Amino acid sequence: MQNNQSKVFRKKAVCILSGGMDSTLASYIAKKEDYDLIAVHFNYGQRTEHKELEAFRNICIELNIKDKYEINIPFFTQIGASALTDSSIDIPTDGLEEGVPVTYVPFRNGIFLSIATAIAEKHEASALFIGVVQEDSSGYPDCTDTFINKMQSAMNQGTKEETKLEIITPLVHMTKEQIVKKSLELNVPLKYTWSCYANEDKACGVCDSCRLRLKGFKLAGVKDEVEYI
Question: Full-prediction pTM beyond 0.90?
Answer without folding.
Answer: yes
